[in-house]
Amino acid sequence: MKIVIATAVYYPQINGVAVFSHNLAVGLARRGHEVVVICPSQTGRSYTRTVDGVKVVRLKSVDLKVYPDQIHDVPERRRVLGVRLPHIIYKHGLKASVFPAREVAEALDGFQPDVVHVQVSDPIGLAVVKWAREAGVPVVTTEHNQPEVLTDPLHIPRVLKRPVNYALASYFRNRQSKSDFVTMPTKQAIDGLLFATGRKLEVPVAAVSNGVDLSRFKPGEAPESIYKKYGLAIGVPTVLYVGRVDPEKKVGVVTRAFLQVLESVPDAQMVIVGDGVDKARLERKYAAVDAVKFLGRVVGDDLYELYKVGTVFATASEIETQGIVLIEAAASGLPLIAVDKGAVAEVCIDGENGYLCEPGSSSEIAAAMRKILTDEKLREKFSQKTIEIAREHDFETTLDRFINIYEKVVSDIKP
Which residues lie closer than 8 Å to 167 by C-beta, 6 or more apart? Predict the structure, then answer.
């Protein structure tokens, strides 16, 4: 098939949508399909490159200076007269295409896809749907967001949050209703979004896991060279976090929990892999704590090996629609600690492969860490179960599901 993937963020950016879109595009190309990705330019100017067998069409873009681009390191906040100023603009801002309709039409007219798969309802996604509807090409939409993903980080007053969330849910539903098939990563995410509006979609909806490559993320011992390269202690209890270090990910909650654990497990270490708006603040706050290690952005083979360094994976994020890093950690054999909010309970099953804690409760997270770090039999039990759960999220299965969906919508739309 000839398949178009439209997305607002794409590799080398690092977040759930960018990683999923890249994995999907490369996987489909590997299966013999002709794939074009349409996304914002990283330079501002339009250009096209073929990477990993995928034709990537980058459209003209502008900087959204209010949010970092997830590629360059996030700088420390400036200090003026001894006071650290809040980040207002970023030198390397997130790129966005504002008026992409003409470029989208040129790219799609020249390619004539069998199906388009839209990841985000940004201007590119909306333009691709409009073109597809006019051209009679079927549309598949994956909804990666819940309203809380956008409103929680903004700290909207409680009296306004509910109507804003409802308006966003209605917008998401309206976008999805223009598709021929809708997917979300988990059934929880589907139920949560549909419950918010109280109305069913009139198009097919299915839960399809984001999936991970189980040939890359797997249990084992990390080589000694990885410990030396990143300055990590070997053979000690290790709490691992991988992901964006932004305020909405609540890495500080996990770090506070870890400090409580140090009192009873003094040889433990916490390893934080990732970059973001909150990294510099947290590094400064815990600069005197040698047991807390900030490694920054890591990709490729080193990332696969760093998962093997962990004894347990912990996150306090409340905005996940599934959490690719949780699946990666599970595939690496790590017990999981997460919070009972969002849609993580299909990966982190309380009492089976880890613990679900009260959102925002560093004391509950600390108690879960102690149990897992100090009980070898419990770790072995959770590790066996977490690997079993990860097998349900093999990316090859995800590819099969999406190929079947594409084939269905293509056959349905043909006269």
Answer: none
CB 346 within 8 A of CB 186: yes
Q: d(Cα 24, Cα 143) in Å, to the nearest integer?
A: 15
d(C-alpha 15, C-alpha 86), whole Å: 23
Cα dihedral angle (390, 393, 396, 401), rounded to 10 degrees? 160
Q: Which residues, including other chains, have CB under 8 Å from residue 45's CB and lie 6 or more apart?
A: 60
Work out the average pLDDT over 209-220.
93
User: pTM for the whole thing?
Assistant: 0.85
CB 257 within 8 A of CB 362: yes
CA dist 29 and 49 (Å) reads: 15
User: How confident is the model over 317-349, as pLDDT tens digits?
Assistant: 988 877 899 999 999 999 999 999 877 888 999
Residues 297, 245: Cα–Cα separation, whole Å? 10
CA atoms within 13 A on the CB side of 75: 13
DSSP β-ladder status, 336-339 and 312-314: parallel
Neighbours of 200 (CB within 10 A): 9
Per-residue tokens: 402: 């999406």
Element containing residue 83 per DSSP (H, E)? strand 83-84
Query: Three-class SS of residue 199?
Result: coil
How confident is the model at residue 50, as a pLDDT?
Answer: 96
Give the number of C-alpha atoms closer than 13 A to the C-alpha of residue 385, restricted to the C-beta side.
18
Give the range among 55-64, 146-155, 270-279 with minimum mean pLDDT.
Answer: 146-155
Phi, psi of 410 (to 5 degrees): -65, -45
For residue 47, the model assigns a pLDDT of: 97
* Alpha-helical runs (H) found in 231-375: 251-262, 279-285, 301-309, 324-331, 362-374
Lowest mean pLDDT among 5-14, 54-63, 172-181, 249-258: 172-181
DSSP-assigned beta bridge partners for residue 383:
none
Spatial distance between the Cα atoms of 124 and 345, rounded to a whole number of angstroms: 32
CA distances from 383 to 238, 380, 386, 388 (A): 15, 5, 5, 9
Residues 370/375/376/381 CA torsion (nearest 10 deg): -90
State residue 95 phi and psi, 5-degree precision: -90, 140
Exposed, middle or buried, 244 (CB in 10 Å: 0-12/13-18/19+)? Answer: buried
How does 96-120 read in b/e, with b if 16+ C-beta sit within 10 Å? bbeebeebbbebbeebebbbbbbbb
